Amino acid sequence: MALRLQVQSTLSYSKSLIYYSRLPQRQQSIVSNMKCRASTHSCEPTSNRRSVETFIVVIQNDCKNNLNFLTYLGKAFIIRTKKLKEQKKHRLDDRSMGQIEEIKKALDSIVCKKDMKTKENESLHATVLRFRLLRQHGYQSTYNCGLGIFIHLKDNAGNFKATYFEDEKGILSLYEASHLAIEGESTLEEIKHFIRTLLNKINGNMESNLAKQRLARWFIDVYEKKENIVPVLIELAKLDFNMIQAVHQENAIDLSKWWKNLGLRDKLTFARDSMIQSFLWTLGSNPEPQFSDIRMELTNFIMLITTIDDIYDVYGLLEELELSTDAVERWDVKAMEQLPDYMKICFFALFNTLFNTINESAYFHLKTHRFDCLLFLKKVWIDLCKSYLLEAKWYHNSHKTTLEEDLNNTVVSIGGYVMCVHSFFVLQQTTPEEDFDCLSQYLSIAHWSSMIARLANDLGTSVDELKRADVLKSIQYYRHQTAWKQINKDTFTNDSLLPQLYIKINVNLTGMPLCV
Ligand code: 0FV
Ligand code: MN
Ligand code: MN
Ligand code: MN
Ligand code: MN
């Protein structure tokens, strides 16, 4: 039941994100053309098998409506966008290198000013924005200076001054900035709680306005209602939004074809059909239109991971699971001969996809750096299956784990390490000597993002976890906070070898279990 709700909420979530609403009727969203059908039969005639009770989301490829929105990928819209940008050249110039220089100069000049305390006449938004921009751009020396500003938010009795919190924009900025805390920054932590409580209390317009401003799609609506707006900017924003949506929807169609051709959907009806959810994960981590390849590849693997997870959690018999884990450990297609048919199909699909998608980049690393990253790939997939098997054993033997034991394993079984190594393959950005170092850094940040993803996933879906005592929840909450601070530290304070894009993928993947 929980899963069913999960799928439905994902659907309505995607629906709300897809498309700017004031479009001609014929350009409707792909999601509204999806039909849900219930999965009824399982694959093997054994009666004591369980099945994931869920709806299967099918994108109807034959529906003509689906293809209409793709007009947004056409030339006419690109030309119109260019024209609009010309009109607003002074605002939206493409000389990005020059602009980056300007931004850096501006940030440097802020840092040079010694007194960064809140000025009486300065808006909360301005103060917070300055702090956030400096931190996000790695201005380490300014941490304490930057933090000093928040002391002014409190009165002598240590309470937050009400006047500061009347300003919508300021609160939003502050809430966002409060997520950038690193170890020991308790004021930011207090602020986060304070605003969260505040938002929960406020009813009506303000809350929904604040929430709306966080999403680009709704921000357009909010902006449109303001005074002194720039109409060209609105047209440009809508066009840009729709063009990016068109790219995403084209991805969804391609993925749907891939998934259909792979055949797991029809053969393994006991498993979740996770295309939309899996795509949302990668959409959340890489929404930019130029990252279609990353989105496609990572989505393929998330879909495979989800199917394999269902085999281990739900459908497979323990002795079968021992066999499949052994086959993956031997990393040998031949070892699959011993598996029951439904497993053969799934693991063959996995190996086939692995070799089709990663061979080129594996060869690239081997050729340019003499670095055999296939070893890492093998290791993380084997570790994943082993962690699945251990959980299956716990389940079948009714083994009660300690929190420590549980987390040590489930931080692996959430699949973050596998995603991390696949991102490494997709990005192909390292230098020869640093490959090994770099990969261990890759895995270090993946540990913290996996921890957050695991805790968020458990809190969201595991009835068992929620049934346990409050103590567990508070420990989880504590871990969650700690993991976030570690990620912020890795992100903002390290002279890291990691590509920014990779860090971004990790940070964004972390947020997805909260939405999906
Ligand atoms: C979680 O499912 C889920 F969404 C999976 C397996 C996809 C993995 C996503 C990434 C690797 C980004 P479920 O809650 O059944 O997973 P657990 O591990 O709790 O069985
Ligand atoms: Mn599961
Ligand atoms: Mn599982
Ligand atoms: Mn779960
Ligand atoms: Mn668990």
TrEMBL record:
Cofactors named for this entry: Mg(2+)
Superkingdom as given in the UniProt entry: Eukaryota
Keyword annotations: Magnesium, Metal-binding
GO molecular function: magnesium ion binding; terpene synthase activity
Key word RNA-binding present: no
InterPro entries: Isoprenoid_synthase_dom_sf (IPR008949), Terpene_cyclase-like_1_C (IPR034741), Terpene_synth_N (IPR001906), Terpene_synth_N_sf (IPR036965), Terpene_synthase-like (IPR050148), Terpene_synthase_metal-bd (IPR005630), Terpenoid_cyclase/PrenylTrfase (IPR008930)
Domain Terpene synthase N-terminal: 101-211
Record flagged with keyword Metal-binding: yes
A Gene Ontology biological process term: terpenoid biosynthetic process
Entries under SUPFAM superfamilies matching the protein: Terpenoid cyclases/Protein prenyltransferases (SSF48239), Terpenoid synthases (SSF48576)
Domain named Terpene synthase metal-binding: residues: 260-483
Transmembrane intervals: none
Protein's recorded name: Uncharacterized protein
Organism: Protea cynaroides
